[in-house]
Design brief:
single chain; 461 residues; alpha/beta; Urease, subunit C, domain 1; TIM Barrel; 2 domains; six-stranded mixed beta sheet; binds manganese (II) ion
């Protein structure tokens, strides 16, 4: 078979180990990985001194669908993903992120709308994880058809007004599991949070800082334990999104040690930033930290790194919400319960995780590749992706571990107007990113991203 691209002289990093190896690409796939590979090849890329990583898979994003006012927002955020080394993005279509009334009412209509409106609007491969909200009357009945249509993962919330009440959440876990699907659950306990919020508002404590004070680690841990218990009864796998604190991690660790199929994700901001940032006096700064769960203590940060090392945390994902301080978040800020929850991170994930994790000796490069690509591919039904391995898609990041830079909003491509990591000194940078064998991430390039229909490999249940 003819070789289109030969990547020579680099160090290939896989979850199982690193070694000096060349990579031969034919068409969109990896043909061969080995030493001393020779052409003829249509082009040769010199990767001497660079690491060859699999393209990152970001399984937790909230892309905005194109609108008349902002027709290129999805495209620009996926260009940003590519620039940062992410070649596959799974996005939610939850209420409030651009999905129409029709989409919010029916999961299948939501899928149709997502595919139609993102077609030709993605610079990287893209898939949908549907939100199952308490506002959708027929959601549970639609799950099997949605799974069959290539959307086997769903996010359900235990908090917010669109939460799935416990009884329906447990039913959703059961239905998903019986039909080859998996629920991703946002674990925060409303019976703890709601009274704290009500009391704060009664006392006139409406500033941004009270967002954090009314969403304590206990609320996350209690909901995490409840979700784990529901999944156990339902004999279903469970994926916990954006785990932020040691108390919730302990619940996951106990479940895993019992052998229960519970998986958990954390995010770059929970691994690097702390709740000390809520003490900044400037509201325009603090409002950037209005995310759920909120930032936690340094003890929690340290526990999350340990959790990644020890295998109690499985995935790092960005939870990218392209909110802008000047638009969605609004300064001067309304009372904290009315502030949009979320922050950007689609472009900075690999950089932050590499620099804070690998460069600082808290995580091996192989484990980072595992939690950013290989395990996400395995858990989310992306069997063509996630590893530099023969037969898989040639989604590659050529990574320069010796590069030094400072993260600045001014250098980013995402559609937010800030980065939570402004000023962070970073070790490492992507030099070149390939999507299915071809360079990606140039803003002027025609978008090549495809919608990925996914099928989960059976997970133990
Ligand atoms: Mn969430
Ligand atoms: Mn989210």
């Amino acid at each position: 078979m003819s070789v289109d691209t030969l990547v020579v002289g680099g160090t290939v990093v896989t979850a199982g180990g690193s070694s000096q190896a060349d990579v031969a690409i034919t068409g969109e796939r990896i043909l061969e990985v080995g030493t001393g590979l020779e052409g003829p090849a249509a082009r040769t890329i010199d990767a001497t001194g660079l690491l060859v990583l699999p393209g990152v898979i970001d399984v937790h994003t909230h892309l905005r669908l194109p609108t008349d006012e902002e027709p290129d927002r999805c495209l620009r955020d996926t260009v940003a993903a590519a620039r940062g080394g992410t070649t596959t993005v799974l996005s939610f279509n939850n209420p409030g992120t651009g999905i129409s009334e029709a989409g919010a009412g029916s999961l299948l209509a939501g899928l149709e709308e997502f595919r139609r409106r993102t077609a030709g609007q993605a610079a990287v491969d893209i898939g949908l994880s549907a939100v199952v909200s308490g506002h959708q009357a027929r959601a549970l009945e639609e799950l099997p058809a949605l799974i069959a249509a290539g959307v086997p993962t769903f996010k359900a919330f235990m908090v917010y007004d669109f939460r799935l009440p416990d009884e329906r959440l447990e039913a959703a876990l059961r239905i998903a599991a019986r039909n080859g699907g998996m629920l991703q659950v946002h674990c925060e306990e409303p019976s703890i949070i709601d009274p704290l919020v009500a009391a704060a508002l009664r006392n006139g404590e409406t500033d941004c800082r009270h967002h954090m004070l009314t969403r304590p680690p206990d609320a996350e841990a209690a909901a995490t334990r409840k979700a784990i218990e529901m999944a156990r009864r339902a004999e279903a796998p469970l994926y916990i999104v954006h785990l932020s604190c040691e108390a919730a991690l302990e619940a996951v660790a106990e479940a895993k040690e019992r052998g229960q199929p519970v998986y958990a994700e954390t995010c770059p901001h929970y691994l690097t930033l702390t709740d000390a940032l809520y003490d900044a006096g400037d509201e325009a700064e603090v409002i950037k930290r209005v995310i759920s769960p909120p930032l936690r203590s340094q003890t929690d940060v340290d526990a999350l790194w340990a959790g990644l090392r020890e295998g109690f945390l499985d995935v790092i994902a960005s939870d990218h919400v392209p909110d802008r301080v000047t638009v969605e978040k609004q300064v001067p800020a309304p009372p904290f319960p009315e502030i949009s929850n979320g922050g950007p991170g689609i472009e900075t994930m690999l950089a932050v995780a590499w620099s804070e994790g690998v460069a600082r000796g808290r995580l091996g490069a192989e484990r980072l590749v595992d939690v950013l690509a290989t395990t996400p591919a395995r858990l989310f039904g992306l069997s063509d992706k996630g590893a530099v391995e023969v037969g898989r898609d040639a989604d590659l990041v050529l990574w320069d571990p010796a590069a030094r830079r400072t993260l600045r909003q001014a250098d980013l491509h995402h559609t937010s107007d800030y980065t939570p990591f402004e000023g962070l000194e970073i070790s490492g940078a992507p030099v070149r990113v390939l999507l299915r064998g071809r360079d990606c991430g140039a803003p002027e390039q025609a978008p090549r991203g495809r919608f990925v229909e996914r099928t989960l490999r059976p997970l133990p249940a």
